[in-house]
Amino acid sequence: MLIDSHVHLNDEQLFTKIETLIEKAEGVGVVAYIVVGYDIESSKLAIELASMYEQVYALIGIHPSEASYIREEDMKWLEKNLKHPKVKGIGEIGLDYHWDKSFMDKQKDLFIKQIQLANQYKMPISIHMRDATDDTYEIIKEYKDKDLQGVMHCYSGSKEYMEKFIDLNMYISIAGPVTFKNANTPKEVAKVVPLDRLLVETDSPYLSPVPYRGKQNQPRNVEFIAKEIAKIKGMSFTEISDITYKNTIDLFDLTELKKEAN
Ligand code: NI
After folding, report:
1. For position 257, what pLDDT does the model report?
2. How far is the CA of 92 from the centre of ligand 1 (A)?
3. 144 Cα–ligand 1 center, Å
4. Which pLDDT score is estimated for 150?
5. pTM given for the model
6. How far apart are CA 3 and CA 1, in angstroms?
7. Rounded mean pLDDT of 191-197?
8. Biggest CA pair distance of the chain
9. Ligand 1 centroid vs 6 CA: distance in angstroms?
10. Mean pLDDT of 164-181
């Protein structure tokens, strides 16, 4: 059994055909989906989908690219909705210096505020980090409560930094790039990441793995990612599926699935 631990079924490219996508994914053993918000609208939709589908869980949060638009009432909405029974964490949050460096302070401020919310409500965090490794690490280290857990979503950093994030109680989630032919760093990370810290995700509709690279991504493709990791680690697909399934349940405290796993 597999869980797509980070997927945007709340993206307009996907939610109009969600039934078909779930059916296809079920065909390869995907039994649950962590649908992740990136602004208020997409977080609302994540909750809506989680209410409609038993196998869908929601993370709500505001992506760093939205940092300059955020209003006081948005933070209040976020806090209020953390209590929803299908909301399992805060995400995706973090720092992204790739497109725009002009709002770095606002990004940091928003990131810190959402980490503090996570501390307060003891909910795991899902981290988006792009071209901002040092600052992301420093902020998590400084602001996150020691025992609070989280995940480096679509981790693309070095294996040295991977160890540092694991020391901060973070999981490492591997996505489509691990299947790309010249993706040496993701393959290196996949090889050394400890099994008890590993998650798999598609980040659909983005980052489609080989053999669908460049096409619209969908949750059924998590199979290709798990298979590639299995190959790299010299393990079976079933072993990687079972381990990442258990890790995802543990991290997001998916109690309903926990019962089934026992
Ligand atoms: Ni994402």
Report:
1. 85
2. 7
3. 21
4. 98
5. 0.96
6. 7
7. 98
8. 49
9. 6
10. 98
**pLDDT at residue 217, as a whole number:** 98
3-state SS, residue 4: strand
Q: How many Cβ atoms from other residues are within 10 Å of residue 208's Cβ?
A: 21
Cα–ligand 1 centroid distance for 75 (angstroms): 20
What residues pair up with 89 in beta bridges, in sequence order? 59
Query: DSSP alpha helices (H): ranges in the chain?
Result: 12-15, 18-27, 40-52, 72-81, 104-121, 133-143, 159-167, 184-192, 222-233, 237-252, 255-261
**72-81 vs 104-121: helix crossing angle, rounded to 10:** 30
Pairwise CA distance, residues 91 & 257, whole Å: 21
Structure tokens at 90: 């805060």
- For residue 93, the CA-to-ligand 1 centroid distance in Å is 10
**Which domains does the chain show, CATH number per domain?**
2-261 (3.20.20.140)
